[in-house]
Here is the input.
Amino acid sequence: MDLRRLAQELRTRFPQGLDGEREGLVRALEEKGASPSEAKRLAEALEAQGYAHYLPGEKGRWVFLSKPLDLTALMRTLDQEYREFVGEGDEEEEALAFLTAKLEGDRAVAQEVLDALRLAGYVEKGYSLELERDRLFFRFPEALRLFS
Here is the structure.
């Protein structure tokens, strides 16, 4: 099965992400018509190829991206480099500019990532004293611990 197409179907079906851990993803694939063993294999393949990502935490959920991506590496980059990044425009545009640059100019996927992180509770808007304006803050300590 084409994993990209499957990820896009899951993204359409679950625009807010899919609650539950691996069992939830396997169950969703079974509801789509896959046998239990095939659903488990597809879930593992989606995750291994970078189309499906489980974001743990308070609002833990599976998110599906239209392009394969190493979300863990991107989250580490956000955690380490975003604080020093100063963009232009409002806080959302600033975050999108950073993500777009890290994703080699793919703004659509940058928006998908930002939406996914926001829905999982890893993004909050707050006032930055250094910049004297609002900015988005990325916080995902439990996710990065799990992925270590």
In short: The radius of gyration is 16 Å. Helices lie at 3-13, 22-31, 36-49, 71-81, 91-102, 107-119, 141-147. Residues 84 and 121 are 22 Å apart (CA to CA). The longest strand covers residues 123-128.
